[in-house]
Amino acid sequence: MIQDRIEKLRFIIEEMQISFHLATKLTDSFFARTIARHILVRAENLIAHARSLRRPLRDAGFDTNAFHTAKEAYAVEFERYFKVARHKIGAHVQDLDFGKRIELWNDIEIVKLSYFVDGAREIYDCLAGLTVPGYLPYAVPAELSDTRIDEILQQIQRSLDARTWVEMGTD
């Protein structure tokens, strides 16, 4: 059970890293924010999985104080900045006043997202000091160093920049 939770945490962090990478490479803010919404969804998943890991670790005799402190600080900041955005425009797409929707949408900023992506990694890294069986040090996903991905993103961006029509949609 512990090893499964650790693997899930690592998987979530990889998804967050990849989404962040894609969001920072696109210059079209709408598309970047659209991709970045995935970080909001996965940040809450990370909190849930980290919380469910604490008791089994503690029951197995591990000192979880640093891990607990890091994940709860992360959870407080998530609640403060992105919980409503996650629920209203990220995961569930619930009806919301148009002005509030625009405000939430515009609050999805790279600086804030960077904090949550880096914070997720810090939570995972807290497990390194515990020497938990099955823990693997985090490695940046290989996809992020593949130059072909950046080339594809540039092609997509050029095609977006060359649009000569109006697009309308709802989220």
Count of distinct strands:
0
Parts with pLDDT < 50 across at least 5 consecutive residues: none
The gross shape turns out to be: flat
Number of helices: 7
Structural class, from helix and strand content?
Answer: mainly alpha
Question: Termini separation (Å)?
Answer: 37 Å
Report the mean per-residue pLDDT as an integer: 84
**Main pleated sheet:** none
- Beta-strand portion reads under 5%
| Element pattern in H and E | HHHHHHH
What level of helicity do the residues show?
over 70%
Notes on the structure:
This protein is mainly alpha-helical. Helix content is 71%, strand content 0%. It is built from seven helices and no strands. The longest helix has 31 residues. The mean pLDDT is 84.
Would you spell out the secondary-structure blueprint of this structure?
Blueprint: H1 2-25, H2 29-59, H3 65-81, H4 83-91, H5 98-106, H6 110-126, H7 147-161
Helix pairs in contact: 1-2, 1-6, 2-3, 2-4, 2-6, 3-6
Main attributes?
7 helices, 171 residues
The gist of it:
The protein is an all-alpha fold and 171 residues long. 71% of the residues lie in helices and 0% in strands.
